[in-house]
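On clarity, I found the account of how folds are encoded harder to follow than it need be. What matters is that the chain and its backbone geometry are given together, residue for residue. For the editor and my fellow referees, an illustration may be useful. For illustration, here is how one protein appears when written out as sequence plus structure tokens:

___
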Amino acid sequence: QVQLVESGGGLVQAGGSLRLSCAASGRTFSSLTMAWFRQAPGKEREFLARMTRFGGSTYQLDSVKGRFTISRDNAKNIVYLQMNSLKPEDTAVYYCAATPGLGAAYDYWGQGTQVTVSS
């Protein structure tokens, strides 16, 4: 089992930045592929980015490329999502997820952290 706890969400003005953190426990963190998703009210969950255990990163949404950056600190068992130039349409609950695989599906999820971007 893997436990994931997100933090760092909050209210920010458009154009601002936030850094989300996701702390993992219960399994060797360096063996996990970690990812970030988000879900806005009334919308389906969207895959944002992932970082494999090999360090490779992938970003899914064109709308976040160049603004969001995923990173991980294997010594601290934390994955981050740095979000810059935030827009009101980035408002959502942000979730981290983990899998022992390469990221086709995710076995473990955090509880989510709310990000609200005001215009």
